[in-house]
Design brief:
Elements (H helix, E strand, L loop, with lengths): L7 E2 L3 E3 L4 H7 L7 E6 L1 E7 H11 L6 H8 L8 E2 L4 E2 L4 H11 L3 E5 L5 E6 H4 L12 H4 L7 E2 L4 H11 L3 E5 L5 E6 H14 L3 H5 L19 H11 L3 E5 L5 E6 H16 L1
Parallel strand pairs: 2-3, 6-7, 9-10
Antiparallel strand pairs: 1-8, 3-4, 4-5, 7-8, 10-11, 12-13
Helix pairs in contact: 2-7, 2-8, 4-11
Length: 273
């Protein structure tokens, strides 16, 4: 299978001369959470994490309206990852998957023979491969058992700092009894931050509680179910994780898109070895 059969075409792009405000506006187009920086050829890539980290680092002790304006008036080169690794349209999907797993990439820009950006492939597209595979492994083999959660009354800013520090894209939200009542993602944080920037109201991001932003719809899975079923559920619901809960709705584990592409790579390697 070729990369071009799975990739998302016409991904969000901006020019190397663009300001960061434009990156904030475009990064969530098509639900990708990334924007490619180009100038005839690919020059860089900016992720949701890059933008959140940029603001959190500089606003550790707070930011006023002037600070926010100054931050987003910078050139994208100050935040982008320059010269990102990319794949060609006609590269084999398995090679792209191996690269994503080995280098811990959540996505890969896709270019044509003249290195013009034509698409992007993310972990979510890779999950489509599961539909053609045998159900060999259960969720419990690849899930993360130690779940980091956040209390509902914690600020979105503090929850975002925790995600950045621990390298997470999401945190289950729990009440004082330890029951899961929702989930907050890096995408949720970025949407609020972008709204904060566009309205120039810093208090929206720095003072809002997690419970005001978190998604209340909770998706879970039995750990004995197959990873194929987990992948199918994530694709159908357009979500990046599934929780494993006990009878009192307390988190016992979590399986993410990242866990699943590692599992996918493992299973495909078994087939070819």
């Amino acid at each position: 299978m070729l990369v071009k059969t799975l990739m998302i075409t016409n991904p969000p792009t901006i020019s190397v001369s663009s300001k960061l405000l434009e990156a904030f506006k475009k990064v969530n187009e098509k639900g990708i959470g990334r924007v490619i920086v180009e100038d005839n050829e690919i020059k860089g890539i900016i992720s949701t994490r890059d933008l959140l980290n940029y603001v959190v680092e500089r606003c550790e002790k707070g930011c006023d309206r002037g600070d926010i304006f100054a931050l987003v008036d910078k050139d994208v080169k100050y935040v982008m990852t320059p010269n990102p690794v990319y794949v060609y349209e006609n590269d084999d999907v398995l090679d792209a998957l191996t690269l994503m797993v080995a280098r811990n990439f959540g996505s890969l820009p896709v270019v044509n023979e003249v290195k013009k950006v034509t698409g992007i492939v993310t972990e979510r597209e890779m999950l489509l491969i599961f539909q053609d595979l045998d159900q060999l492994f259960s969720v419990k083999k690849f899930m993360t058992k130690r779940v980091t959660s956040v209390y509902e009354d914690v600020s979105v800013f503090d929850a975002t700092k925790l995600m950045i520090k621990r390298g997470f894209r999401r945190l289950p939200v729990i009440n004082e009894s330890g029951e899961v009542i929702g989930i907050i993602t890096a995408a949720d944080s970025l949407k609020l931050l972008t709204k904060t920037i566009l309205k120039n109201e810093p208090e929206m991001f720095f003072n809002k509680k997690v419970k005001e932003v978190a998604t209340n719809e909770i998706y879970s899975i039995d750990p004995e179910k197959s990873i194929n079923e987990a992948a199918a559920t994530m694709l159908m619901k357009k979500i990046g994780s599934l929780l494993i809960l006990d009878s009192k709705n307390r988190p016992l584990g979590i399986i993410t898109e990242r866990d699943l592409i590692i599992a996918l790579h493992y299973q495909l390697h078994l087939k070819t070895s």
